[in-house]
Queue: 3 jobs
Job 1
Amino acid sequence: MFFPYVKNKSAMPSVNTYLDSHNIAKVRSVQSEIHDLYQDDVSKYEEDAWN
């Protein structure tokens, strides 16, 4: 079940980075970027939740 997902180019960027480079430092960097994007996105709606 996991393998076909990994072969698909729509897999998470961190998975693709690992498959391309086998470099955990690069994977962590991509994961950090994704986390920052999620955090920025959630913060847009945070104020609306309190109003």
Job 2
Amino acid sequence: MNQRTSLLPHGVAAALHPLRQPPSDAPWNLDELDGLLSPLPLRDAAVLVGLVPRLGQWQVLLTRRSEGLRHHPGQVSFPGGRVEPDDAGAAAAALREAHEEIGLTAAEVRPLGWLDPLATITGFRVLPLVAEISPAFVPRPDPGEVADVFEVGLASLLAPGNLQRQRLQVGGRIRHVLSYHEATARGRRIWGATASILDNLRRRIEVGGYHDNGEAGTAGSR
């Protein structure tokens, strides 16, 4: 993919940690998981937050996990997984997993930078890698891992009014998790870690003083 194929939405570039400097600090949501995590150290993982310029608007690439998976079957997620010993780092892990899960090749993706690390209740420290994906990309999902690949408009996902907090009982205590209204998610349930990662992007853009309208071709790429 060319180094400059299209222009990023307002504020996205400024909201990201530099690609060459993955954030090393603790996950931002540790307080929310107090008392729910194993005492063992968090394991490193990475996901790919893919942005697709399409018909003048930016879309976010998402997957629905296969029902036969052991962890989080049927849930909406980003392509990704644990960082393996053979991976050159978190970026390499995210790109490898995206290739294995949905057939994304290196020529179809341009990594841009990082969001803040997130802890999951399953014991991972997840680094979200934001990247631009070619609109010519045609998903080739591995049916053993991915049941569906779809896109949702970035502007809708960044609108605070489309996000809600839900109460769940986990480990004998009440926990509040983020969830998008189904109308925003095109009838799918986007919640939990996936919703938290998208909300982290929204909050980082707001801190920078930007308000994204989701239009492609409105700001400089770097």
Job 3
Amino acid sequence: MGIIDLKRAVISSGVALILTFILFILCSLLTALSIIGDGAIRTVVIIITCISAFIGGYLTARNVYEYGLFNGLATGLIYFLMLYVLSVIMTFTFAANGELFKGLLFILIASGIGGVAGINSKAQRRRRKKASYPRYR
């Protein structure tokens, strides 16, 4: 097995994508009820995307023993590509502008932090301790 566990990264990115859709639906309901103003939508979208990327990176790194940052970054990159492909399919526009790269940066930072948090979580430390490396005496 290499540094990055691609299978877990893809699965965690899918979970993050589903979480994003659920949170977007909740956000649209709050906007329809006039609880969230129209001017705050862009900020809420960035926050939802970062939360989902963090959770995706956390889920990936929680199941590996090392390289949490790299696994989190891989999850963030896969998550970004999934979002971008879905956006191109839905809007029929292919654009690469500053907003796209700013979104990529936010996603990579959030998923990288999630990867570090996942590898250092309390449950992960217990699991690592239980399945410790064999000691030779």
